[in-house]
């Protein structure tokens, strides 16, 4: 396994790899890897000859009061997990090599990124799209795999690939959960023992909503009401940012479930922001 | 010479060409080709194995009151010129194939694009960068050649390539002029006979400024004053948008010429908007 830190070295190697007609699979991450990331690596490995995993905590996608400074890091463990999972290249660039002092070009999405997390994290998706566009140009992947927990992110990236004609196939991996159901996230490490126990009820609330759907409920205000009730009672969050039901393609709110619907929540448990979602049907 | 209109066909061919280790040179244009474009083709041909010229009048870079609807077209003549100059592929996509109805992703530049033309054409450079990013992903060039008349455009594109890590070498061709000095432009066709005669004094004014510089003048307000005097008297424009002296790298106004300085003007002659520039020293 190679560990590459220079942007120029990564890009040269990627271009050479493409010239050898070898397929590049790519998993962009912010490091502090867990089983969720590893599941994406396995998808990438099945679809390609060379798997590149990037590890870069992207300052541009964090707001001024967010957790950029304390975002967890463990490069040694990350490298061990990557080695074990058969990653070929870990690309871990420095922020200085990624963003020059006078960086001034950004990619932005104007429709899908306005609701859900975009409403609460202004500039977030501009930061995400800018770094993903950069990484696509540096790593030159044929296939890139993103986690389904960040459902809006995945849709916004799909839109960028379509609208800017990136020759990259996007695959969205399913959410990987802890044994009790909590969606895996690097940020779960922030949770106290008590918060961790309460946090599981985010997923419990989504499962209730799914059950209601299966029992015939189609009105999303009923589904969202049930989720809110369980979250308020059992998660006891410090803040509920949103509980939304949106069309999975347009990310526009829906009142009656007809097409594939994304039921997504963002809550703060203590000071930790957690997101989760399910798709119905 | 191949003429390709489908985005998917162009992209597949580009990827195949790259896999054969053949170098792709690219000249993006809006058609209605003239000797200025052809000089760019020759530069591209010297630097590559396959020359692609795109011809697409990009609606997104025109303002609501600009000349998108009447922008001149002559595909037959364009194809003849391309054939004669050894262009391998003319890529002439339809607007529908380039922009879907729900297109929502744009590339924008926040520093270099605010002054000069950017001030008078809001959204213009966002439109330019978005189409150029798309074309780079579709045509997959190793080298792309842009004309020096649109000096700000060239700098903004260089910045995009750097900031988004496109693996593309940008070459800026020198301005090609009519025998009397008027910078070649597809828009010159709009000029009446009288306007055409007066328009030549745009370049005359820039030459005067260069002469003043050569005589030791370094104060840009003197240079700009001389240009304004000649333009007002001899061009008799319906509007002077700007007469600016800016640092060529940062595009920020300079008062004393020290580094390479772009002296650039934009004027309306009748209803036709014309731009021109020189670099000093």
The DSSP helix count of chain A reads 9
Radius of gyration of chain A (CA) equals 19 Å
Oligomeric state, counting identical vs distinct chains: homodimer
Q: What do we call the CATH homologous superfamily of the largest domain in chain A? A: HUPs
- Record field, number of beta strands of chain A: 10
What general form of chain A does the structure show? globular
Largest interface chains and counts: A-B, 33 and 34 residues
- What proportion of the residues of chain A is helical, as a percent range? 40-55%
- Element order of chain A: H for helix, E for strand: EHEHEHEHEHHEHEHHEEE
The name CATH uses for the topology of the largest domain in chain A is Rossmann fold
How would a crystallographer describe the biggest sheet of chain A?
Answer: 6 strands, parallel
The number of domains of chain A = 2
Write down the CATH class of the largest domain in chain A. Alpha Beta
Q: Structural class, from secondary structure content of chain A? A: alpha/beta
Average the pLDDT over all residues of chain A and give the rounded result: 97
């Amino acid at each position: 396994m190679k560990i590459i830190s220079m942007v120029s070295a990564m890009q040269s190697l990627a271009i050479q790899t493409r010239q050898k007609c070898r397929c590049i699979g790519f998993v962009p991450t912010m490091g502090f890897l867990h089983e969720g990331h590893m599941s994406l690596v396995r998808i990438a490995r099945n679809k390609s000859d060379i798997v590149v995993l990037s590890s870069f905590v992207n300052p541009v996608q964090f707001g001024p009061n967010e957790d950029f400074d304390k975002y967890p890091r463990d490069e040694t463990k990350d490298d061990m997990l990557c080695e074990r999972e058969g990653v070929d290249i870990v690309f871990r660039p420095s922020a200085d090599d990624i963003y020059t002092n006078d960086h001034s070009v950004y990619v932005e999405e104007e429709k899908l990124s306005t609701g859900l997390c975009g409403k609460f994290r202004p500039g977030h998706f501009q930061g995400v799209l800018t770094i993903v566009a950069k990484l696509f140009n540096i790593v030159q992947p044929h296939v890139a795999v993103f986690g389904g927990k960040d459902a809006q992110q995945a849709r916004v990236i799909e839109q960028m690939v379509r609208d800017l004609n990136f020759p990259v196939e996007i695959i969205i991996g399913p959410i990987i959960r802890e044994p009790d159901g909590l969606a895996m996230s690097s940020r779960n490490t922030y949770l106290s023992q008590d918060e961790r126990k309460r946090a599981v009820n985010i997923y419990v609330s989504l499962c209730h909503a799914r059950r209601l759907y299966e029992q015939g409920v189609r009105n999303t205000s009923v589904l969202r009401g049930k989720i809110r009730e369980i979250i308020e009672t059992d998660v006891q969050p410090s803040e509920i940012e949103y509980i939304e039901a949106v069309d999975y393609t347009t990310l526009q709110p829906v009142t009656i479930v007809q097409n594939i619907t994304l039921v997504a929540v963002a809550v703060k448990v203590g000071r930790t922001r957690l997101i989760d979602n399910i798709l119905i049907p």
